[in-house]
């Protein structure tokens, strides 16, 4: 349970997210190097494995950090809009950015009828927000303001940087583990068996390595999803504090969740980016909850209506 | 000997705490100033639009000189305002005079359909929206700073280092919002 006593300005949460980004990178690097080291030791593969870990990990992290936003916008087919051609949209975003005390982000439109939106960029000065054409068509102005404020809350809190790093790091852990498991089949069978104690120790460490390689990606993925759900809930709350109209954001969420045709660009790979869950995991069973990157729509809507001091249309 | 160490320890702790509070207050005060410059940008924009507006109206309605003069006077007062409170008052007056200007414009169909006039009117209302947006952010930073300043034991330190409370920027129709800032919604997760 967490309580926010006042309307937060952008300055809250930022430091904690920046710090957590660094912790995340350090932990993952330790993990990657550790896997490399175990591999090197257990499979007589030599230091080459550690070098391999670095060769894969470092460029991947740097690419994610410096080009993550461009990649996200490109794979979603987003087109940048200008003030002159989209005056109204530009004005909405600009006003909310001013209210949140942030520079106006670059604005993109995704040619997709499924209503949704996402924000990206490693800091507020280099941030972009992308809205689908379907979103612009289906929401009224106040609902749109709610969604834009939610996205700007992500930008202001450095969620965009944090979540990009978390996604890259999770990917890296999955990749490293997979390499370990794959190579362990090859080298595990054919490696030199020495009959002394060091051979036994080698075997045990090798088994531990396999156990870690199996568990780590699962733990990392579940952690990423948990972080994502929490950041979404916080962005809802902060977005609502920016517009002071939580119920309008809730209405936008309801409209979006009722759209039932498949999205063109939003898929499992890009889902964590988006304002609303794009997967078809509905319901609130334990499994579907921990495998979702957003809190259930019902929960988000109910929380927002509670913030507004109104009765949620979903509560009977 | 031991007591000496304990006293020394306490002194160091207090000093560290004071440094932390001092730096935090400086940081918050700079945020307030930064937020004010955000308002200032929009206010200046508004002041720059008004002479054009006056000229445009003059072209169609010379006889309304008193209304036009009032607008110009109110604008000059607003430009001269220094503190947020002064600005608040001056902006309210300016808004009132502009309202009467637009009311007068109603009587001149040619003016009302003048493209320049319409553009300026839209620009003005957009700028007013932005002033409102900037004001809300500014007042948020002022509230954070003032709270930090007033809580115990920061207030002792704030007095020593001459930190002063900052003024809110209040303009028309904002009393409701000030109340709102006090009765804030609970956020639970």
Please provide a written account of the structure.
The complex is a heterodimer of chains A (316) and B (189). Chain A is mainly alpha-helical and 316 residues long. Chain A contains ten helices and four strands, in the order ααβαβββααααααα. Chain A has one domain. Chain A is 64% helix and 5% strand. Chain A is elongated and about 70 Å long. Chain A starts with 13 loop residues before the first helix and ends in an 8-residue tail after the last helix. In chain B, helix 1 (2-60) runs antiparallel to helix 2, helix 1 (2-60) packs antiparallel against helix 5 and helix 2 (65-80) packs antiparallel against helix 3 (84-105). Mean pLDDT of chain B is 84; it is low at 178-189. Chain B is mostly helical and 189 residues long. Chain B starts with a helix and ends in a 7-residue tail after the last helix. The chains are: A mainly alpha (316), B mainly alpha (189). The interface between A and B is medium-sized, with 30 and 24 residues.
